[in-house]
Design goal:
Elements: H1 4-8, H2 13-33, H3 41-56, H4 76-96, H5 98-107, H6 122-128
The structure holds zinc ion (ZN).
Zinc ion is lined by residues 30, 34, 39-40, 42-43.
């Protein structure tokens, strides 16, 4: 059910953890709203979009949580979709994936970097020097 995009591109450790959290939340939402086994086509394309945004996030490994980020890189439609899904899945995450949920909540308290770093996105690093990307062996 994974798109080739999300298996051929490697995200750095923190970004890949964030992607897993988003994926878990989308799964929770999709299961109770779209009545499909696994993920429906819409939710898969949303995840691809989220994955691309993570890969291109200018903060890279210093990425703040999306809630606190001053950039707002999502397009309006996807932003709305994210808000709806995260709103529904947020509290449920504490029950189903407590470690992921608590880790994300805790990260809300980390200050946003004062300046957007230059050339720090995952995409930039993986295209310029793939060795800089720290891979996560638990990435699925
Ligand atoms: Zn769905």
């Amino acid at each position: 059910m994974d798109n080739p995009l999300t298996t051929s591109i490697i995200l750095s450790k923190k970004l890949s953890a964030e992607y897993k959290t988003i994926k878990a939340m989308v799964r929770i939402y999709c299961r109770s709203h779209h009545n499909t086994h696994g993920l429906c086509a819409d939710c898969i394309s949303f995840l691809d979009y989220a994955f691309t945004r993570l890969d291109r996030c200018p903060y890279g490994e210093e990425k703040p949580t999306c809630n606190k980020c001053p950039i707002h890189c999502y397009k309006p439609a996807e932003k709305k979709q994210a808000k709806t899904m995260m709103g529904f899945a947020g509290a449920r995450m504490l029950l189903r994936h407590p470690i992921m949920a608590v880790d994300h909540l805790w990260r809300e308290y980390i200050p946003v970097p004062k300046e957007v770093p230059k050339a720090n996105s995952n995409r930039h690093l993986r295209l310029s020097d793939s060795k800089k990307i720290q891979t996560d062996p638990t990435y699925d």
